UniProtKB/TrEMBL annotation:
Source domain of life: Bacteria
Name of the molecule in the record: Uncharacterized protein
Length: 216
């Protein structure tokens, strides 16, 4: 599965635009889900999920064929592979808030392996039990060797509980804290629209969101 991450510097003021965007994008071939986001500074974002890379690449062209020219300018437009996609304890509920943690590249093979190992062995068992956590995704950009982690939760309190759960974990004996410095940038945003159509079949991984200071 693939994820397309798009952002705008200023979210359009039209409150009806979010459901219209969600309805338009969800009708495209290969659609597998989306979350439409906004920050306190009115920065807007869309993470859309697709079954194939081709469908992810063609999404904007297909939208333009229906809607015409995009009514806002993108500041970012990137396609990632979905490295992990796992439901949380509140799977099936509507998320209200999101956490996005980004790891700048190029990440070394050792750092990528360490992040995946931490996610599956240490963090996933803890995060699966956090009330209010809807979904966890880890995104991988293979050419630039960057990662992004997205957590969706039902409330700000639930998102805070996720952070506390990460902080409560202890590094495993074979983990190297030097390889786990944590994300380079983080953002907490409100969810304007969500379509959770699919979760990747057989997915068992969840991405690493903490750093050495997030584990004892």
């Amino acid at each position: 599965m693939y994820a397309r991450l798009q952002t705008v510097a200023a979210r359009p003021a039209d409150e009806d635009l979010a459901p219209r965007i969600a309805a338009l994008v969800s009708g495209h071939p290969g659609f597998a889900g989306l979350v439409l986001l906004t920050g306190d500074d009115d920065v807007g974002g869309l993470v859309s999920l697709w079954l194939t890379r081709e469908d992810a690449e063609l999404a904007s062209e297909r939208s333009a064929a229906v809607r015409g020219q995009r009514p806002f300018t993108l500041t970012r437009d990137e396609i990632y592979e979905v490295d992990a996609d796992e439901p949380g304890a509140a799977a099936g509920e509507e998320p209200a808030v999101a956490f996005l943690g980004e790891f700048d590249g190029p990440l070394s093979p050792a750092r990528v392996e360490a992040a995946r190992y931490a996610g599956t062995r240490r963090l996933a068992p803890v995060l699966r039990t956090v009330p209010g956590l809807v979904r966890m995704l880890m995104l991988w950009h293979p050419t630039e060797r960057r990662m992004a982690a997205l957590h969706l939760a039902t409330s700000t309190a639930a998102l805070g509980a996720v952070s506390e759960a990460v902080m409560s974990t202890t590094l495993l004996p074979d983990e190297d804290p030097a390889l786990l410095p944590g994300p380079d940038r983080i953002a907490r945003m409100r969810v304007l629209a969500y379509r959770g159509d699919r979760v990747a079949p057989g997915s068992t991984e969840v991405g690493y969101l903490g750093g050495p200071g997030a584990a004892r």
